[in-house]
Every structure is written in structure tokens, then in C-alpha cells.
Amino acid sequence: MKSPIGRFISYLFLVIVSFISVFPFYWMFVLSTRSNADAFKFPPILTPGNQFFTNLQTAWERSDFLTATVNTLIITGTVTVSQLFFCSLAAFALARLTFKGRKFLLLFIIITLTLPGIGQIPLYMIISKLNWINDLRAVIVPALVSAFGVFLIKQYIDASVHPELIESAKVDGARNFQTYYKIVLPIIKPGLATLAIITFMGTWNAFIWESIVLRDESVRTIQLAIRNLQGTYTRETAIVVTGAFVATLPLLAIFIPFSRQFIAGLAEGSVKG
């Protein structure tokens, strides 16, 4: 057992780390409740003010946050659900099925993880030929499946789903999709939760590709709406931070309820992997 001093040091360390982790969100909230002049005061003001709804109204009038939020929810929800299905299905095939070219496909997926984003130019040419510029499909379709998601779930299946289970299912007459649906999916739920949170947060915060193909205000995402809040000649930090704070709330609403599954997925993968 740890000594009282050791426990005190451990708790003190956890408190400090927790404070460092939470403080940026608190500071974002404080700035969103203050005027633009207060954002540049030194020493900084650490207590909330009464300007939040004023800043929110200004942000709402300057950039259509409702449309941007709906667009982002459509993109994020579709991409997340699609990746959970296609990545887990492909990972199951690569991890537990035997077919010609399996090793080559796995090697190809690993190689794509090491490449930078050099595919945006040919991808843009394809999207342009399809007349998908200023269309949500330009963002959704290329992200329906990801090499990272396939590799992550494949590693999780390797660690969690024993080959004997698959063989037993085959002996009982189960088809491959039945085995995937009834045996594999219930076992890899923590891994799917991990992929869901990573995909949701990454898609919600995506900016570069969206700024290239989504130019009209009617198809803007939340990150493009935040960029539009910045003044042309002045730095309106309070308004921009208010928009960023509002955009962060859905991420917290998703992460907090599923944080246990997320941590369980990471912990189980690290122990078994």
C-alpha cells in the first residue's frame, strides 16, 4: 500500500493535470461572456461576465450558425455511422477471413496511413467532374470509410475475437455476415465506441477540405462559420471564441456519455495488443 505522502502526491498530481485539462474550456467560456476589450486586458480576467448572449446574438447574425450546425450534423452523423459499419466489416474480413490478396490489402492500408494528404488534388478533380462543388456529398462520400478505422478495428478484433469463436460459428452453419453481426460486433463494442468518438470529433472539427469544396453560405459547416466571424479589419476575439465555445458543446455532449467506453476501448487495446 502507498504511504499517506505517496497518496497525497498522486492526488495532487491528478488535480494539477485535471486543472490543466479543464482550464482551456473554462477560459473559452470566460472570454465568451466578456467584451472584446476585456479579452486583451492584462492581467487577464478570470471571472465570467454578462456579455454571453450579446456575443452569441452577434455571432448568430454575422454567420448562419443554425444552417452550419445542421450541415455539420448531417456530415458528421453520416460519416460516423458509415465508418462504424464499413470499417468494422472490412476489419472483420481482414482479421478473420482467408482470401486471396488479404495480406496485400492489409499492407496497402498500412501504407496509406503513412502518406500525407497528397490525394486532395486528384480528389478535387473527381469532385469537380461530378459537379459536387458546394454539395455536402463532396465531404461525405470521400470519408465514408477510412484506412485508420479499418486498421484500428482490425487490431481490436485480433486482440479480442478468438479464432475458435469464428470456427465454432462456421461449424454451426453461420454465414460470414451472421458471424460478423451476432458474434464479432457485440465483442468489439468498446473499439467501435473509440472509433465513433474519434471519427465524430475529427469530422466535426474538419476545416481544410471543407473550405475548398464548400464555398456557399448554404452549405457551410460549423468551422467555416466560425472563420466567418473574424472581422476584416479588427480582431473580434470575444465573438470568435463565443462561436468556438458553442461549437465545442456538441463534442462534449458526445464525449462525456461515451467516455467510459472510449477509455475502456483504449485500455483493452493497449493491454491485449
UniProtKB/TrEMBL annotation:
Signal peptide feature range: none
Keywords for this protein: Cell membrane, Membrane, Transmembrane, Transmembrane helix, Transport
Topology versus the membrane: Multi-pass membrane protein
Regions that span the bilayer: 9-29, 73-97, 104-127, 139-157, 191-209, 238-258
Domain ABC transmembrane type-1 intervals: 69-258
Database matches in PANTHER family: ABC TRANSPORTER PERMEASE PROTEIN MG189-RELATED (PTHR43744:SF12), ABC TRANSPORTER PERMEASE PROTEIN MG189-RELATED-RELATED (PTHR43744)
Name by which UniProt lists this protein: Carbohydrate ABC transporter permease
Organism: Chengkuizengella axinellae
Taxonomic classification: Bacteria, Bacillati, Bacillota, Bacilli, Bacillales
